[in-house]
Amino acid sequence: MxxxxxxxxxxxxxxxxxxxxxxAAGCEKIFSEKMSGKSTTGRREFEKLMxxxxxxxxxxxxxxxxxxxxxxxxxxxLHDLEGRSVGFVSLGExxxxxxxxxxxxxxxxxxxxxxxxxxxxxSRCEQGIERAKAKGTQFGRPTRLDxxxxxxxxxxxxxxxxMAELAREYxxxxxxxxxxxxxGASQEQGYVITTACGISLM
Length: 202
Prior knowledge:
This protein is an alpha/beta fold. It has helices at residues 16-24, 44-52, 64-67, 71-83, 101-134, 147-158, 163-170, 174-196; strands at residues 2-8, 29-34, 58-61, 87-90.
């Protein structure tokens, strides 16, 4: 069965022309809606379409941007359709027809290009991170307490002050104080091990 999907972005637009083109292309049932294509979330007619599909069916749109506005969403939808053994045809892009050998080849080529581009982007990001690390750039959330403060907190906590009191004085949460104490405990363990080997860290 051939299903059509028509979509416009705003309430002032009309999808009648899309429906006529889809009917002329042999669509037996058409799902139409007025909804932004920035995401597949919240598109109720699109969700109904996906639930109605069975192996051997074909989804038809007038243009690719009626189905998805981003390459990632389009890739995910087409991958889902392929997994269900459902064909896809875009009337506006003659090369995009997964019901033909040539169309499937073109989609494979386009998918390979997209994967290659993602690989290049990932590689550039990793290289940029390595360069930043080499320059001493610190990643992650900045610590609220420095090493000296953590040592003082550990000493004061050992002397009897509570985490709540320390948190108020240092203007941080008790969880931050707890992490500082854990960090201090790890450092203290390291100190004991090294001094036992006859090496002084002082």
